[in-house]
Design goal:
By secondary structure, the chain is mainly alpha-helical. It has a single domain, classed as Macrophage Migration Inhibitory Factor (2-Layer Sandwich), CATH 3.30.429. Helix content is 41%, strand content 7%. It is built from one helix and two strands; from the N terminus they run αββ. The protein has a two-stranded antiparallel ribbon. A hairpin with a 2-residue loop joins strand 1 and strand 2. This is 4-oxalocrotonate tautomerase-like domain-containing protein. GO terms for molecular function: isomerase activity. Keywords: Isomerase.
């Protein structure tokens, strides 16, 4: 079983790979010309429906 850090890394890798393929296909560009940035935000930096995610119970 993967530890939490490895699990998250695998998910980000999968996200990057799929987005890269999709963008390159739609824009008809080679995959190496696509850059995917993953910006992680704290729950207190995200608002949904007028409430911060940090204030919404899971």
């Amino acid at each position: 079983m993967l530890n939490q850090k490895s699990y998250i890394h695998c998910k980000k890798e999968k996200l990057s790979r799929r987005n890269d393929k999709t963008v390159s296909k739609i824009y008809e560009l080679p995959e190496y010309s696509v850059t995917i940035l993953i910006k992680e935000l704290e729950r207190e930096d995200i608002g949904v429906g007028g409430k911060l995610l940090s204030d919404i119970k899971k």
